[in-house]
TrEMBL record:
Protein name: Amino acid permease 7
GO CC annotations, alphabetized: membrane
Record keywords: Amino-acid transport, Membrane, Transmembrane, Transmembrane helix, Transport
Subcellular location as annotated: Membrane
Positions of region (Disordered): 1-20
Domain of life of the organism encoding this protein: Eukaryota
Organism encoding this protein: Capsicum baccatum
Record lineage: Eukaryota, Viridiplantae, Streptophyta, Embryophyta, Tracheophyta
Domain Amino acid transporter transmembrane: 30-458
Length: 463
């Protein structure tokens, strides 16, 4: 993803050797529309899909689908703006910007790069917290479903999630010792496969339950509440949940950097974005609408927690979530690890605690290179995300906060501002007003979603 160490590795150079290397790298690129579509869909479909039915339940049969379509349009516009910013000045011969942060640095300057990096790292950290909550919920569901299956519907099978969060945290402390992304490709592949498995199982279970009910539940206005203010807060929170499920802006340029040319990469990326967003939106609408149709006013925050039978399939889906999030946690944590460890190495080059590696030989396994700073920092990082998740174990509210925080800056503001610089659009021109108005509307949506989600966390904590 777009992190500072990637920025440093792609600094521009005027030397002929750098140009030669760049041309060779470009020549070797083999990505097509369909490989880009695959990358986008694999990146977008994840834990956020589990909350879409709940979001639709808050917004109702009209508001829910329309809101998802609106987010899809915003995402497509953002991807188009970013794809035009891949090459500086010229879409064919311009110097490529292979990462999100690199593009921000080139078009907006170093100060904005630091702000962009900070937002990305906050999002990575927050996503780790959300993944701890989600995985613990899934592990608890496996225990609950098996309990009801063995003891009957009247059995007392409700348990908390703290123990399961601790279990997940211990697993992540171990997996966090994987040195970097280059050593965890297998984990990412497994995570992507698991995300597709539980998403399609959730869709199938929703369709099956609608058929069993022989009716479509839900209403135009969504789930009723005791007061109008409570309804408003829940609608705002639903916006944050949907926002969390959509954005992939921070990896658009990384994916575009894999595409071959001709045709120009921005044309290929726009086609890939249109195709992948259409596929994803259709899938999201099916999953959310069938989930709402199946449960109506009782739609759960995590759609898979609403099913008990067939217990083996529900168990498998929840196990897929846990396996996905074990890898997903690392996908979002490794950039943070890399940034902090690189900073520490540069700041304290002579410090043995930071730079000394110890070879530890384990039976059967290859030798392990142990670094004390890495061990301590990564362990404390996992402990901190687990502790915060235990303090605020609220799935929908946490997703809403994260969706609101990252949606406007990375999906709308930076792409719009970079595009304005790229195209040299004059202030107060018609196009400038349209772009800035678009950005302002999305900012308002993000603020409302953030406020609603924070209110939800406070209300849940006090309750």
């Amino acid at each position: 993803m777009g992190v500072d160490d990637e920025v440093d590795s792609h600094m521009p150079s005027n030397s002929s050797s750098a140009s030669s290397s760049l041309s060779k790298l470009t020549f070797r690129k083999t990505g097509t529309v369909w490989t880009a579509v695959a990358h986008i869909i694999a990146a977008v479909i994840g834990a956020g899909v589990l909350a879409l039915a709940w979001g639709t339940a808050q917004l109702g049969w009209i508001g829910g689908p329309i809101t998802m379509l609106c987010f899809a349009v915003v995402m497509f516009i953002s991807a188009c703006l970013l794809s035009d910013c891949y090459r500086t000045n010229d879409h064919i011969a311009g110097r490529p910007n292979p990462s999100y942060n690199e593009a921000v640095r080139v078009y907006l300057g170093k100060k904005w790069t630091w702000l962009c990096g900070l937002l990305l790292y906050v999002n990575f950290y927050g996503t780790g917290i959300a993944y701890v909550i989600t995985s613990a919920t899934s592990m608890r569901e496996i225990q609950r479903v098996n309990c009801y299956h063995e003891r009957g519907e009247k059995a007392h099978c409700q348990t908390g999630t703290s123990m399961f969060m601790l279990i997940f945290g211990i697993v992540e402390i171990v997996t966090s010792q994987i040195p970097d992304f280059h050593n965890m490709a297998w984990l990412s592949v497994v995570a992507a496969l698991m995300s597709f498995c539980y998403s399609f199982i959730g869709l199938g279970l929703g369709i099956s339950k609608v058929i069993d009910n022989k009716s479509i539940k839900g209403s135009i206005v969504g789930i009723p509440t005791k007061s109008a203010s409570q309804k408003i807060w829940l609608v705002f929170q639903a916006l944050g949940n949907i926002a969390f499920a959509y954005p992939y802006s921070v990896i658009v340029l990384e994916i575009q950097d894999t595409l071959k040319s001709p045709p120009p990469e921005n044309q290929t990326m726009k086609k890939a974005s249109m195709t992948s967003i259409a596929i994803t939106t259709f899938f999201y609408l099916c999953l959310s609408c069938f989930g709402y149709a199946a449960f109506g006013n009782n739609t759960p925050g995590n759609i898979l927690t609403g099913f008990d039978e067939p217990f083996w399939l529900v168990d498998f889906a929840n196990a897929c979530i846990v396996l996905h999030l074990v890898g997903g946690y690392q996908v979002y944590s490794q950039p943070v690890f890399a940034f902090v460890e690189k900073w520490a190495t540069q700041k304290y080059p002579e410090n043995r605690f930071v730079n000394k590696f110890y070879a530890i030989k384990l039976p059967v396994l290859p030798a392990l290179q142990l670094n004390l700073f890495r061990l301590c920092f990564r362990t404390l990082y996992v402990i901190s995300t687990t502790a915060i998740a235990m303090a605020f174990p609220y799935f929908n509210q946490v997703l809403g906060v994260l969706g609101a925080l990252i949606f406007w800056p990375t999906t709308v503001y930076f792409p719009v501002e970079m595009y304005i610089v790229q195209k040299k659009i004059g202030a107060w021109s018609r196009k400038w007003l349209l772009l800035e108005g678009f950005s302002m509307i999305c900012l308002i949506v993000s603020v409302l979603a953030f406020i609603g989600s924070i209110e939800g966390i406070i209300r849940a904590k006090l309750a």
